[in-house]
Amino acid sequence: MTDRIRRPAEPADAAERRSKKPVVVYPNGTLAAPDLARLGKARETLEKIDEVIVPPRDGRTFTVPRGHFFRVVSIEGPQVGDLNLWNAHDLNERFFSGKTRALHATHVSVGDRLWSTLPSLRPMATITHDTLGWYGWDDDGAGVHDVIGTRCDPYTNRLLSGGDYHNCCHSNLCRALSSARGMSFKEAEPHVHDVLNVFMCTGFTKDTHQYFMKASPVRPGDYLEFFAEIDLLGALSACPGGDCGSSHSSDVAACYPLKVEVFRPDRDLLSDWPFPDRNGYVSPV
Ligand SMILES: [Zn+2]
Predict the structure, then answer these.
(1) Residue 192 in contact with residue 236, Cβ under 8 Å?
(2) Contact, 85 vs 233, CB < 8 A?
(3) Is the bond preceding residue 11 a cis peptide, omega within 30 degrees?
(4) Cα(101)–Cα(180) distance, rounded to whole angstroms?
(5) For residue 248, is pLDDT > 80?
(6) How far is the CA of 119 from the centre of ligand 1 (A)?
(7) Which whole number is the average pLDDT over 114-139?
(8) Nearest to 150 by CA among 188, 195, 202
(9) Dihedral over alpha carbons 148, 160, 176, 214 (to 10 degrees)
(10) pLDDT at 221 exceeding the cut of 90
(11) How far apart are CA 153 and CA 51, in angstroms?
(12) Which of 24-33, 167-176, 210-219 has the least mean pLDDT?
């Protein structure tokens, strides 16, 4: 609570009310876990079939067929990437950052899945390797690969700084989608959504619980790897914040390209993989 808000006097039973035990909303073990051992075997057979370089302060799209793997790779220097995912055949089904956060955690890693929006709500991708998996939680309470932040965007930037900046992740993702699908910027914009902040190091301050970022521990060669559970269209922005250690929404930070690599495994190993259908719930009215 900030000092701008005056705290009302505590009730007599405040301590008792605060003493209730936390209950994990979606408890561990209630969500069917992916068969990582099987995906691990498939990983040993990967053959690269495509590669996309995302220039600094810009965005690019890529496609990943169901049953394939893809990696977001750091190549020239510490760099954060903002990732959007869509069902390649239906842009209305897209990555649902909020539900992914609720089902897994504020930051995601191996074994976690990226879930799609309602009413489909199914895993779009499963994280199968994370070279930053060693980072865990640091002394500031920060971790990597968050599903807390939304994406840097020119509207918030204008609100806060009064200036206009055209290479925010939001704009980069809109332009990338627009050129991939032959849409205008205005047509593409509503499809761009809250991201997975690949490699970004973030947390909440201990005193005021405000969202903070700090310089990413990512180094060239690091990557985050996913298994595509459905046919995917992806878009990645190389954030103008670079390693997000100081600022974003400007040309001040050192900024590097990112690479997306797409791999095909030996498909016999995954011939009966339980690829997810759209969620089966139907409203009675
Ligand atoms: Zn950004």
Answers:
(1) no
(2) yes
(3) no
(4) 28
(5) no
(6) 28
(7) 98
(8) 195
(9) -40
(10) yes
(11) 27
(12) 24-33
Tell me the mean pLDDT in the region 71-79: 98
Q: Quick: pLDDT tens for 13-56.
A: 999 999 999 999 998 888 999 999 999 999 999 999 999 999 99
Ligand 1 mean position to 196 CA, how many Å?
11
| Domain edges within the chain | 51-267
Measured over all CA atoms, what is the biggest interatomic distance in the chain, rounded to whole angstroms?
Answer: 66
Tokens read off for 257: 């390209």
Asked whether the beta carbons of 261 and 49 are under 8 A apart, the reply is no
Q: Separation of 46 CA from ligand 1 center, angstroms?
A: 30
**15 CA to middle of ligand 1, Å?**
41
- Short-list 175, 64, 209, CA closest to 125: 64
Instruction: Report the separation in Å between the CA atom of 182 and the middle of ligand 1, taken as the mean of its atom positions.
Output: 24
Instruction: For residue 65, give both structure tokens.
Output: 């067929």
Answer whether residue 252 shows pLDDT above 90: no
The CA 280 to ligand 1 mean position distance, Å, reads 35
Give residue 264 CA to ligand 1 midpoint distance, Å. Answer: 30
CB 252 within 8 Å of CB 93: no
